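> run fold 4-hydroxy-3-methylbut-2-en-1-yl diphosphate synthase (flavodoxin)
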Amino acid sequence: MTAVFLSEPAAPTLRPRRESRRIDVGSVPVGGGAPISVQSMTTTVTADVEATLRQIAELTAAGCDIVRVAVPTQDDCAALPTIARRSAIPVIADIHFNPRYVFAAIDAGCAGVRVNPGNIRTFDDKVREIAAAAGAARVPIRIGVNAGSLDRRILDRHGGRATASALVESALWEAGLFEEHGFTALKISVKHNDPLTMIRAYRLLAQRCDYPLHLGVTEAGPPLQGTAKSATAFGILLSEGIGDTIRVSLSAPPVEEVAVGHHILAGLGLRPRTLDIVSCPTCGRCQVDVFELTKKVEAAFRDFPAPLRVAVMGCIVNGPGESREADIGVSAGNHKGQIFVRGEVVRTVPESMIVEALLEEALTLIEDAPETQSG
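> ok
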């Protein structure tokens, strides 16, 4: 079904996107004004090809645009050709410690390679060869600088601390090594576990280069903490036009990272909304179990075929107003619910029929709405 955009979009409030050069990670353009992509990383042992491919399929179904796989061993290298060939989305090989694996990943047909020269032994001596191999294969490279693995020479110059300036100096030094050999198909990240340090680092980096930037708060933590850190940092940077691709790092299944990433982008108007539930946090005025009702509505609309804003409200103070502002909504109380469609009450149903009524009205709404081509 063609996307039907029912709710009036909010007026744009973000700064224009930072101008950056474009690279192509397989079929996905990054930078140069391309849509911001959502990335994640598999948690499987890469050498277990079938398990890794199953997880990539789950990530693809969740809306992941680019996936990264860890390559710490020769067995993982040996698995890359099959994984790269069978994955439905571009695969980036994540390389640490052994530069030989970079060449293996390029030969395997990976869409990109991530390197952290702070973690690759004798990297300085291999840049010419890596640049030549990646350039010949048209494979971009991400210079991924992390606070926990800065090059010791740079870390020492900053008093042993992974400051924002140290992260940026490391990234630009490493980019310069490639530039000396005419290779500029680079993407850069400067990740830190502290959102404020990470924000400062990306602001500095954005001023000093035009490479596309991959945003991330590294080791962000468990789902609640990691989501809050990432949403804060990404929201600030993306609102300033900084960032071309993102990864939400959570101590959780990677499909959760993708879901959070999509919600962050949708909340900023950088991706079309799908299901947007407006629900009250509840208080002593509520006469219905809003928590349970919201869960049921979310489950019922999970695979809904069009973008929709649904209000689930539980009292007479804000309920009617919020329900009128949504595409459809319910203001519930006294064991019944008033069902709103585009600002008008269309019927009142028993509490037990609220979810069914909302779904019926939503389906009728998209059948009657004129279809518009997105994008």
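The chain has two domains: 23-268, 275-368.
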